[in-house]
Amino acid sequence: MVTLPDGSKTQKGAKDENGKWMTPDGEPTYRVKPDGILDWYAYSGFRRYHSECHVCHGPEGEGSTYAPALKDSLKTLSYGDFIGVVASGRVRHLPGGQESVMPALGDNKNVMCYVDDIYIYLKARSDGAVGRGRPVGRDEKPEAAKEYDKACFGG
To answer: In the predicted model, is pLDDT for residue 92 greater than 90?
Structure first.
């Protein structure tokens, strides 16, 4: 995580592309202003995470007794691997013969249309750029996000 000249936090080399922050490798990332205001996509990720993911993975990506803390997982899990696990699911064999199952969510538009947003929010949590609790605010929704929503949901 780096601090930009305006005091915002993001990942090294990230740039704003039509309201969406991207790393030099083309991966989506966050921008958190000094007053705690999130970019639209990070805020959307907070909302989508808490509507689709927190039941298993706990609030704010903190984990639960049966699903890992995603804020910790994203310290080592790549963007591509994250997308793959969300879309296709995963079974992990645990000591004692137990299994941990992540269901495949590739057909769930409420997840897949916003999987980048969810990743962005969790990456911000993982990097310590966003703390626990509801964000204080967000940027306005970019036109590109509005167009993407319509296209993803067939409207």
So the answer is: no
